[in-house]
Amino acid sequence: MFHTKTVTRTDRVANKYKIIIMRFSKDLAKAYGITEDYAILVIATWHLQTPTEDDLQRVPYYSHRLPKGLSEITVTSQARRAIKEGEDLQEIVDRISNLDIFPTEQEILNINEMLKTHDIKHQTPKELRKAFQERGKLGFQILKHAAIYQKKILEHEYGGILPRKLPEIIQQINLVNQKAEK
User: Fold this and answer.
1) How far, in Å, CA of 154 to CA of 142, rounded?
2) Residues whose CB is less than 8 angstroms from the CB of residue 129 and which lie 6 or more positions away in sequence, other chains included
3) Residue pair 56/79 in contact by the 8 Å Cβ criterion
4) Helix %, strand %, coil % for the chain, to 5?
5) What is the DSSP letter of 122?
6) What angle do CA 99, 103, 108 make, to 5 degrees?
7) Which of 18, 21, 78, 129 would staple 146 via disulfide (CB 3.0–4.6 Å)?
């Protein structure tokens, strides 16, 4: 039996953006000469992507204090989008946290090197460094708090299992059950 799903324009646009963003972190890093880790932080701040209705679902069973300037809807939509895409945000946060040098700091070092040979007309070097610092900090805050919400959503709505891992676990259980029957 086949299930048909009505795909709305919003779904098509959201899927298009999802595919673009998955490829975009590498392209962004190459184009601007930034690290992929910093590109991930920059993309995390792009919470103005067209969200689907699923992304906008509230999390009435959990809430915690968020840093100033960070809205709950931004964090929860990022968490739900990551669940839908099968991404474990805590793995990303842990990887970035365990880097020897934070991506933002690496980019500021790169900017300092670039400023030795290039002249920037529309921003002072101090403004440029500050903009990179703020963007990186905001991106990391969004990821960090979205990871917390993602964990709570997974516990409450999915039994603690990230949906991408569910089919693998079911297959393993089925294999164990088949072996037990023999």
Assistant:
1) 18
2) 108, 111, 112
3) no
4) 70, 0, 30
5) S
6) 135
7) 78
Contacts of 169 (CB under 8 A, 6+ apart): 161
Mean pLDDT of 162-176: 72
Residue 72's pLDDT band (cuts 50, 70, 90)? confident
State residue 146's pLDDT score: 92
Assess if residue 130 is contained within a domain.
yes
Q: Kindly state the helix (H) or strand (E) to which residue 175 belongs, with its residue range.
A: helix 166-181
Round the average pLDDT of the chain to a whole number and report it. 76
Domain count, the chain: 1
Q: Kindly report the CA angle at 99 between 98 and 100, in degrees rounded to 5?
A: 115
Place of tokens 């709570």: 152
Residue 99, in any domain of the structure: yes
Q: Which position has the higher pLDDT, 176 or 33?
A: 176
Joined together, the tokens standing for residue 170 give 């079911």
Residue 53 tokens, joined: 């209705």
Residue 165 has pLDDT above 70, yes or no: no
Say if residues 57 and 80 touch (Cβ distance below 8 Å): yes
Boundaries of domain holding 79: 9-181
The answer as to whether 1 is a domain residue is no
